[in-house]
Specification:
Elements lengths: L1 H13 L18 E3 L6 E3 H6 L15 H8 L6 E3 L14 H12 L5 E8 L2 E8 L10 H17 L3 E7 L7 H20 L4 E10 H4 L10 E2 L5 E2 L3 H8 L10 H6 L5 E2 L5 H10 L21 H9 L5 H8 L7 H8 L1 E5 L12 E8 L2 E8 L5 H6 L7 H16 L4 E7 L6 H5 L2 H12 L6 E10 H5 L6 E5 L3 E3 L3 H9 L5 H7 L4 H7 L4 E3 L10 H19 L4 H13 L2
Parallel strand pairs: 5-6, 6-7, 7-8, 7-9, 8-10, 13-14, 14-15, 15-16, 15-17, 16-18
Antiparallel strand pairs: 1-2, 3-4, 4-5, 11-12, 12-13
Length: about 575
């Protein structure tokens, strides 16, 4: 901590142009109006400002000046500017560039298109950068790259998270190849920051394009975006003029990027500070079983739940198959909502798409940050269709692996909830590399150096289930199933008669009780009558206690020990 305070003190002494958020001009008159370009209406500026620079007619977002952006997300008077003396040079001796820089500096009061420094979000210190579209469309020249790189380097020294509000038209044409070099320079600084185990959150605002998108904007551990923001590499005009391709409505907007797997979450402006605070708090604890309190969780069922549980003890294998497949069976999202707090869902594989069959993100278990991932099958037919009936595609498995590798970086335990009849077997899944995606998960999960606990909560169908089930321990619901493939498929392959599925279920050893005896699972979780809504609280309490006990047992183990334990678990089969 001494190093941190020394560097903060040094930065304060060095800063020549430190500005507080409180240094603002008087508010405009209440009657002043401005044009909303989205809806074409004249709106009262004072009302728009009060509404956090959002049009009260159409909810479209106005671009925000640097000082206002800082005011929205930082604690009052906590911002300290760094490296304010860095501003654009003229490496190409481009005609008129010096004059243009001077003019925009005078007009905006900014020396460059990005402002960097340190501030606090609900008392948590962060290094922050804000790009401003008023300054040459937020383009990235040498000074922008230098300020961001220096800020990230200092954040690495101080062991602080970095948040950058991205807003840019891309590389600065007047600085040519020197501007291009900033893409590599900023990316390299962020790599060192990441290798130090530190958190980086870019917030993509309108517009985020070109070389900024292809560098620091897309390298976050968690990428947030504002609604409707234009986000892309090549702008629509460039695409249309270069290859003549007409683009659809909504192309490259934040919602498009979320659907295509490149953004973790779209956050409304009013929720942004609280969302950033939640993310920061979920990255503060380092270690396992660091619970906020020592209160024991009561995992004992009520008398009613005991009665319900007793009635389901005599089910046969095929009955359990039917129970596991029930549409109204408790889902991964049900258990996540019941057991954990502060869950923030993350989206996308950062390659192609966000697969709704896989839900995952970060959450808290009694103050212990964890990564939770589940295969979501749905709770009714409409919900099942939305989640592709719990059959993940390659991008779903890649999203899960991305979250697991992120958990490893930040030393968070991983909890998975598995319920799938199997991986999606459509043509597009094969084109996307379904086999490779599953194999990659098995390969990477075997070596992940944080604890992994798996709950089989419904169907465990073949490799599609195993791809999220390479755990240090695997627990299974009493009426769940886990098998090499479905009983129908088993009967069809071995007996050439899929109608013998009921018979197949009884010989395949697919029930929790069978698999416990075979050593495939370590614990059988009671369902208290059928894993329905009435049993959620009892099952959730039981699981909650199981997770706490599991994490306490892992406390003190090294990453190598955890990976070796997982290797030896599967080596015995």
């Amino acid at each position: 901590m001494g190093k941190l305070f020394d560097l903060i003190k040094e930065s304060r002494n060095d800063a020549k142009d430190v500005k507080s958020i409180k240094d603002e001009k008087p508010a405009e008159t209440q009657d002043e109006e401005i044009l909303c370009k989205a809806c074409g209406q004249m709106v009262k500026k004072a009302e728009v400002v009060k509404n956090q620079y959002i049009c009260y007619n159409c909810n479209s977002y106005f671009r925000v000046k640097t000082k206002n952006r800082l005011k929205m997300v930082l604690d009052s008077q906590s911002f300290e500017e760094w490296f304010s003396d860095e501003y654009g040079s003229d490496p190409l001796e481009f005609a008129g560039y010096d004059g243009k820089l001077a003019a925009v500096q005078e007009k905006t009061g900014l020396k460059e298109a990005v402002t960097v420094g340190m501030g606090k979000i609900n008392s948590i210190p962060v290094v922050i950068g804000v790009c401003d579209a008023r300054f040459l469309m937020g383009s990235m020249g040498h000074a922008v790259g230098e300020k961001i790189t220096k800020a990230v380097e200092r954040a690495t020294e101080l062991e602080l998270p970095v948040i950058i509000f991205c807003c840019s038209g891309g590389a600065r044409m007047q600085e040519g190849i020197i501007s291009l070099m900033q893409m590599a320079k900023t990316s390299a600084a962020l790599k060192k920051h990441s290798d130090a185990g530190l958190l980086y959150i870019p917030v993509l605002t309108d517009p985020t394009t070109g070389g900024v998108t292809a560098s620091f904007a897309m390298l976050g551990d968690i990428i947030l975006a504002e609604p409707g923001a234009l986000i892309g590499f090549a702008g629509a005009r460039v695409i249309e003029q270069t290859i003549g391709q007409k683009l659809p409505e909504g192309f490259q907007r934040a919602e498009f990027q979320l659907e295509h797997g490149f953004v973790d979450a779209i956050v409304e402006r009013k929720d942004l500070k609280e969302t950033l605070y939640k993310i920061l708090t979920l990255h503060k604890v380092d270690g396992f079983a660091q619970f906020a309190h020592n209160t024991e969780v009561d995992g004992r069922p009520t008398e009613l739940m005991r009665e319900r549980s007793a009635k389901s003890k005599k089910l046969g294998a095929w009955d359990k198959v039917s129970m596991a497949r029930r549409v109204n069976r408790l889902s991964a999202e049900d258990y996540i909502g019941e057991i954990f707090t502060d869950f923030i869902e993350m989206h996308g594989d950062r390659l192609y798409r966000d697969d709704p069959a896989i839900v995952g993100g970060i959450a808290s278990l009694d103050g212990q940050p964890v990564t939770v991932i589940g295969i979501q099958k749905g709770k009714d037919m409409k919900d099942c269709a939305r989640h592709n009936y719990g059959m993940p595609s390659p991008e779903g498995y890649r999203k899960a692996l991305r979250l697991m590798k992120q958990a490893e970086k930040f030393h968070r335990p991983i909890i998975t909830f598995v319920n799938t009849s199997g991986a999606f077997c459509g043509m597009e899944a094969e084109e996307g590399g379904q086999g490779e995606a599953i194999a990659r998960n098995l390969y990477e999960m075997s070596g992940i150096q944080v604890p992994i606990l798996v709950f089989m909560i419904g169907e465990g169908g073949s490799g599609g289930a195993l791809a999220l089930a390479v755990g240090n321990e695997v627990y299974m619901m009493e009426n769940a199933t886990y098998s090499i493939l479905s009983p129908e498929g088993f009967a069809s392959i071995l007996w050439k008669d899929g109608k013998r599925a009921k018979e197949a279920a009884s010989v395949m050893k697919i029930t929790a009780q069978d698999l416990f005896r075979l050593g495939v699972v370590e614990k059988v979780i009671p369902e208290y009558g059928g894993a329905d809504d009435d049993a959620l609280t009892s099952i959730g309490n039981y699981m909650h206690k199981c997770i706490r006990d599991f994490l306490i047992r892992q406390e003190g183990k090294t990453g190598e020990q955890l990976a070796r334990q997982r290797y030896e678990r599967f080596r015995k089969f």
